Amino acid sequence: MPSFLGMSAFMWQFTFSPPTPDPQIESLVKLQAPTWGKDAKKDELKATWLGHACFLVELPTPVGAARGPRVLFDPVFSHRCSPSAYIGPGRYTKPPCPIESIPDVDAVVISHNHYDHLDEPTITTLRKQHDPHFFVPLNNDAIMASLGIAPTHTHILDWWENREVSVELPTESGGKVTANLRLTCTPAQHMSARGMFDRMHTLWASWALEELPAPSAGGHNKAYKVWFGGDTGYRHVDPHQNEEEVPVCPAFKEIGDKFGGFDLALIPIGAYNPRGVMSSVHASPSDAVRIFQDIKAKKAIGMHWGTWVLTIEPVMEPPNLLVEEVKKAGLHEDAFTVCGLGETVVIP
Predict the structure, then answer these.
(1) Confidence of residue 12 (pLDDT cuts 50, 70, 90)
(2) N or C: which terminus of the chain carries fewer CB neighbours within 10 A?
(3) Is 282 annotated as a binding residue?
(4) Domain for residue 33, yes or no?
(5) CB 251 within 8 Å of CB 188
(6) Does residue 326 carry a pLDDT above 90?
(7) Exposed/middle/buried for residue 53 (C-beta within 10 Å: 0-12, 13-18, 19+)
(8) Into how many domains does the chain fold?
């Protein structure tokens, strides 16, 4: 974890000489109104980026249903990721849609309790609009209860625990079809806190989403698997160390071995500088590519960038470096990319 002195030095630098977004940032980070993949085939997997670490993932449509099960990861629609509505990092890109226009959601998954991943106003709105299941790591039950989430819809998991849920999906004729999915709480290298005195009191996690085998409207006979990285580091790098010579977190290879790989991975690529402070909790593009390989993903989308200035690297550096790191690793250029705000990536 970051040292007290290292974090203090970073906060001084960040406070008095913070990086500023390019004035043309809106033309650099593509923004579109989400279509939620309405033109995709019913047996395809869809993921729509809603900013920072927030994705709406829709699994293939079961036979007889009008849509597939939908899972929303780390939703934050507030302007500031802060305890205050008046101070703290403010968005430099807008959400691609108002929260009220998000289509029906069956489950919401939270990686940890930092303000850029767990936003109380957003959670409250989603509860009122959709009444979804909520999946959170260990010891986050108190905050869920304070937001009015019913115990029947709150799933508190430790690393490697999983929970299967059945969700009712609408049919074209107005009826209901039941679909099943499994969520597993998997390890991450990070930390938690919402104030000065609750550091490490709650767990942080990545998550694995599995479509339980069932015939889809398109007739595909495989079950899709998605991995959500949440917020994670990969290794700790002190100043002047060679990154390739320091130990790496073994959890990601364990995840890849346990699940046999993933059809899609959502992996953080931003908020990594200065490396001596941030490397243990935030993956760089180089780290992200290694994580991609460790978990045996077929396709990945980079996240945790393009929304707030959280650290000192230029705001467009993460996606630009990702292109270089993918090439260095000998991967196909489309294997690990970023997408625009509001864009839906379709996985056949």
Answers:
(1) very low
(2) C
(3) yes
(4) no
(5) yes
(6) yes
(7) buried
(8) 1
Tell me if 185 is assigned to some domain. yes
pLDDT confidence of 85, banded at 50, 70, 90? confident
Helix-helix angle 285-294:251-259, to 10 degrees: 40
pTM equals: 0.93
Predicted pLDDT of residue 221: 64
What distance in Å separates the CA atoms of residue 345 and residue 85, rounded to the nearest whole number?
32
Calpha distance 205→138 (Å, rounded): 9
Known binding residue 92? Answer is no
Q: What is the CATH number of the domain that holds 118?
A: 3.60.15.10
Q: How many residues does the chain have?
A: 348
pLDDT score at 10 = 47
For residue 85, give its domain range.
Answer: 43-347
Residue type, 325: E
User: Is the pLDDT at 98 greater than 90, yes or no?
Assistant: yes
* Residue 22 within a domain: no
Would 27 be classed as within a structural domain?
Answer: no
